[in-house]
Amino acid sequence: MSIDYQSLAVRGVQALSPYQPGKPIDELARELDLDPDSIIKLASNENPLGPSSKALAAVRETLNDLCRYPDGNGFELKQALSARYGIRPSQITLGNGSNDVLEVITRCFADQASEVVFSQYAFAVYPLVTQAIGATGVSVPARDYGHDLDAMAAAVTGRTRLVFVANPNNPTGTVHGAEAIERFLASIPEQVLVVLDEAYCEYLQGDGYVDGISLLERFPNLIVTRTFSKAWGLASLRVGYSISSPEIANVLNRVRQPFNVDSLALAAATAVLGDESYLQRSREVNARGMAQLESAFKELGLDYIPSAGNFIAVDVGEQAGQINQLLLEQGVIVRPVAGYGMPRHLRVSIGLPEENDRFIESLARALDTVSASEFGQGA
Ligand SMILES: *Cc1c(COP(=O)(O)O)cnc(C)c1O
């Protein structure tokens, strides 16, 4: 009798479904026999500007060192982050993307006896890493697609070790202001760690802007995570980090892999922190594109969830799956979010103005096609 090796996987892993990334351009090109250059991808909240020229120059300079291991302590990047954010290098834990840090945090502080609290519609990685280690995930119903912070605090029990808060959240784009976050943190017992995932914080502007770093002194159980994948435009290089007390960072640094950020990534991230104009352009392109999409959705009579990130979730109705397919056929990749329990929405990343236009035109065509076929069926 042959062995069923899947049944040998630990229990949490057996029932795990892998993270569903946005469809890569080359994959769609192969599937539908399209020219890759004709495809636009607005599916993974990537920076539409392309990488910063300073980051590219730093990568080129580092290429000759590929035969060497990277600096496992990321000295220069930690120096640059410390200078920018007024923190100490000992507070930083670097990761292979912030996904890596989120996983390391979970493995360090939760086990099979633990509960981990997160929100309905929150970033998919939280339930995934929780389940992988065999901890119990507690998904708290959202309010207006956003985190219900009071309900999340109320969901904390004696077994809760970790609470994940994405601010702004992906895929909904919802955000809580400083006051709400502070009130929430004050309501969480000190022995429960709170991860404030600020992957999109660089896009936040104006009143209510939350800077998790400024709260670390008052809340020693707080871990702030950030990434170079979004506003800093380095998604492919995989660099993220957490900022916490040095005690917590010390724990995380025991478990993370010693060389989890490669030398090209370290060099690029360090360089891009010195490219303020890139960040500025990222924000401007995003704000303009967001306004462009919002006004198009209004014109098309579509509801959307107001977003503080570099993406927006739009309600395209019950035929969202078919509309997504019609967009793909026009060479436009967006992100269906049925897997998040949002079967009527599509999440669209903000692109360059011409990419946004192309998406809007393709969406209008897809909506027409769907309503024509419904009409044809006498529905
Ligand atoms: C994109 C994203 C991340 C991080 O991605 P990395 O590329 O792994 O740094 C983390 N949290 C949220 C909510 C995100 O949307």
What general form does the structure show? globular
Q: Note the beta-strand portion.
A: 5-15%
In total, the number of domains comes to 2
* CATH classification class of the largest domain: Alpha Beta
Q: What are the secondary-structure elements, in order, as H or E?
A: HHEHHEHEHEHEHEEEHHHEEHEEEH
Ligand identities: pyridoxal-5'-phosphate
Question: How big is the Rg?
Answer: 21 Å
* Strand order across the largest sheet: 2-8-7-6-5-3-4
Mean model confidence by pLDDT: 95
Question: Could you give a short account of the major beta sheet?
Answer: 7 strands, mixed
Cα end-to-end separation = 53 Å
Account of the protein in words:
With 379 residues, this protein is α/β, with parallel strands linked by helices. The chain folds into two domains: 146 residues, Aspartate Aminotransferase, domain 1, CATH 3.90.1150; 223 residues, 3-Layer(aba) Sandwich (Aspartate Aminotransferase, domain 2). It contains 13 helices and 13 strands. A seven-stranded mixed β-sheet has the order 2-8-7-6-5-3-4, covered by helices on one side. A four-stranded antiparallel β-sheet has the order 9-10-13-12, covered by helices on one side. It is globular, with a radius of gyration of 21 Å. The chain binds pyridoxal-5'-phosphate. Pyridoxal-5'-phosphate (PLP) binds next to helix 5. The site of pyridoxal-5'-phosphate has 14 residues, from helix 5.
